[in-house]
């Protein structure tokens, strides 16, 4: 690789690191080409990206404010999975793919600017998505009002049933 192309790649990676504050370092050893194509298509469908780069170039592109613990995981074959919007969704996608194909392992990552070890990745993958949590909060906020509405309607419904019973008897 020529020096100019390396500099260009380092700049592109640096821009990717700046734009995404969540990414995972993935070990992809023994992955066949059809599986890699399937994984890239899954990523593309869900607005994520996967980059396979040389570790030295990735280390050059890392900003100074990234945790030092992260830098030691750039060894061996490493792919970087970027999550611009939904890092939990990306974690689920990686976990599902690795369970199905028994190939991928997550070395480490950065989740909303915080270091994430590979051991804690499983905890992130089982979290609910932001939309599910917002929906649950909305339901919990509306539930007392729903109960109150049902309570107020109960006497009205009882009167209606009582009147229909009186009509039937007469």
Report what the structure shows.
There is one protein chain. By secondary structure, the protein is α+β, with helices and mostly antiparallel strands. The protein has a five-stranded antiparallel β-sheet, covered by helices on one side. The protein is built from seven helices and five strands. Helices cover 59% and strands 14% of the residues. Strand 4 and strand 5 form a beta hairpin. It has two domains: 125 residues, 2-Layer Sandwich (Alpha-Beta Plaits), CATH 3.30.70; 42 residues.
Oligomer: single chain
Mean pLDDT equals 86
Radius of gyration, CA atoms, in whole angstroms: 26 Å
Structural class label: alpha+beta
Counted by DSSP, the helix tally is 7
- What's the architecture of the largest domain, going by CATH? 2-Layer Sandwich
Q: Name the helicity range.
A: 55-70%
Strand order of the largest sheet: 2-3-1-4-5
- Count of individual beta strands: 5
What is the CATH superfamily classification of the largest domain? Ribosomal protein L10, N-terminal RNA-binding domain
Supply the CATH class of the largest domain. Answer: Alpha Beta
The proportion of residues in beta strands is 5-15%
CATH topology name of the largest domain, in short, is: Alpha-Beta Plaits
Query: Biggest sheet: strands, sense, closure?
Result: 5 strands, antiparallel
Query: What low-confidence regions span 5 or more consecutive residues with pLDDT below 50?
Result: none
Number of domains: 2
Identify the overall geometry. elongated
| H and E order | HEHEHHEHEEHH
């Amino acid at each position: 690789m020529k020096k100019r192309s390396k500099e260009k790649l380092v700049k592109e990676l640096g821009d990717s690191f700046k734009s995404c504050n969540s990414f995972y370092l993935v070990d992809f050893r023994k992955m066949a080409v059809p599986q890699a194509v399937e994984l890239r298509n899954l990523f593309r469908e869900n607005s994520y990206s996967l980059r396979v780069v040389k570790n030295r170039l990735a280390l050059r592109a890392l900003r100074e404010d990234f945790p030092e613990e992260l830098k030691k995981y750039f060894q061996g074959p490493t792919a970087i999975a970027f999550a611009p919007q939904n890092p939990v969704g990306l974690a689920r996608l990686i976990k599902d793919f690795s369970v199905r194909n028994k190939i991928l392992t997550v070395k480490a990552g950065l989740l909303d600017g915080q270091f994430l070890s590979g051991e804690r990745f499983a905890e992130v993958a089982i979290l609910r998505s932001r939309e599910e949590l917002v929906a649950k909060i909305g339901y919990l906020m509306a539930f007392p009002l729903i109960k109150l509405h049902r309570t107020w309607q109960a006497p009205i419904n009882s009167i209606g049933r009582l009147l229909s019973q009186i009509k039937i008897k007469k």
